Amino acid sequence: MQIPLLQPVVNNVTQKPKTWLIGLLAVGLVGGVIGFQGIRRQRESEDKLTALTVPVQSSDVALQVQGTGTIQPIRNVNVSPKVAGRVQQLFFDQGDQVRSGQVIAKMDDQDVRAEVAQSTANLQSARARLLTLRSPSRSEAVAQARAGVVQANASVDQALSEARRTQSEVTSAQSEVIRANGAVADAQAKLDLAKTKLKRQRQLAAAGAISQNSLDEFVQQAKSAEESMIQAKAQRSQAQSRVAQAQAQVKQAAARVAQVRAQRDSAQAQRNQQNTLGSAGEISQAQAQVDVAAAQLQAAQNRLNETAIRAPFDGVITQRYATVGAFVTPTTQASAAGSGATSTSIFGLANGLEVLARVPEVDIARIRAGQVVEIRADAYPDQKFEGTVQRIAPEAVNEQSVTYFQVRVKIQTGLDKLRSGMNVDLNFTGDQLNNATLVPTVAIVTKKGQAGVLVPGKDNKPEFKPIEIGASVKDQTQVLSGIAEGDRIFQELPPGLKLDQILKKDEKK
Questions:
Q1: Which residue intervals define the domain CusB-like beta-barrel in the entry (predicted)?
Q2: Spatial distance between the Cα atoms of 386 and 417, rounded to a whole number of angstroms
Q3: Nearest Cα to 177, choosing from 240, 249, 247, 242?
Q4: Contacts (Cβ under 8 Å, ≥6 apart) of 356
């Protein structure tokens, strides 16, 4: 047996394991590459799923109801006179604080005072007649009554003459004011011209074009024009004072006329009633006339008191609708809505501030008196104010097919910043939900009236899953059943997919 013959056999045996090892390594390498690519694709799919979905979470939240509202006064009225008349005085202006019962305006009371004087005379006449009927007539009393009538007539004539004279003085004084205004305007024009010339001459003098003497003449002319202006204004002020004085005398003369006429009427009544002792029936009738006259006097006195316009409650003047001299008629408007006709109101008066909120019908069951409210105004975007629910309207309001309830909110903070008429957003804090399952509201979809969410299905593709929803809190909604904490739901759809395609695909299954 020769050993060399065994050498090839030994070499073949040693080479076969090397070939298998190389093949095994090649297969392993290919499998590793394929496995790595699979893991990478799986990780990429998971990353995409994480980016498109959010986990369902559970937490304790407070129910909230959103609403809008407008800040308005708690009490708000347009103050008007009870009887039409002309405004004589205004004692306050917009923004002033007033107290309840304080006189804020005065109406012209000249005619009403004449009524009071007439009613007083009628009462005196009725009482005098009653006294006459209760006592025997006397010739001396009759003579005195006649003399009183004569004297009263003379007083009336004198008062009328004085009234005409004072009215003439008013007209004359007003003419003087007109002339004085013209003189002031003329003096002002001359003064302006003199100043213009002086300015021009000073420029010429500075340039050496004219002498100092020439400049001094223009300076003197300007001073003279200014003195003339001062004198014209003084004369105008004197004329205006004479007008005011004459007008006051006219009012006094008118009051005097009314007074002496009342005295004349009383004297005539006394003269006519100086007769014989009256019968029991006449005395009763006279007593009734006294009572009627007393009632008429009281009514006239009430009308006189009503010419003083008083504040119905403590508050602030929000608007001034009338000016002195304006004619104002009564109005039946009980409250002001922010604007009023100047012919029917004198002042707008308001007290306090509150929010008149509008809460949708679906949320009104979660609103209760005393509930805490968060108030936000556009004028203060970075600030929150507090309030509480004061009252809930018992009846709904429907506007443009939308039903809502009016809720009055008492403002607790921010009264120094909030203003009537501001629009505000409201957040009503409700009951506490413990360990509530919450999902983003935008993730909820509807399929044939059934609420649901999209969850990862086969190959992580979105599938519809029905849920039962509860209350909404800001941008989240409570889920009562259908999903659990930790589940992932789609908040965004994968690229290339549409919601209606997903829902229709689920229907075919």
A1: 356-430
A2: 13
A3: 240
A4: 69, 70, 71, 72, 406, 407, 408, 409
